[in-house]
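Lest this sound abstract, we think one record worth quoting, the chain in one-letter code, the fold tokenised, each line plainly labelled:

>
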Amino acid sequence: MDKTLTYRQAWRNFHDYITAPERWAALSQADRNRVSMAESDYHERRIERRTGRPYGLGNDRIEGILTSLAPGRYEFRQIVILHDGQ
């Protein structure tokens, strides 16, 4: 069943999926760190020293992680909708 998700919804879905014990154990330490750091940034827990602002988890980074760690599970499309006559 296909669902349309926002990037943030896709991240939540992916995080729940990838942290299942059998999948998490199959990841390399580098990939686990990548997912853990991204999760921290999703919740804006890390602070950038230079600016004092929290790191965020942007759409490009979400797409990169999901594409590399769950190939075929997610499909990314960018669309523009024109509401003609307004």
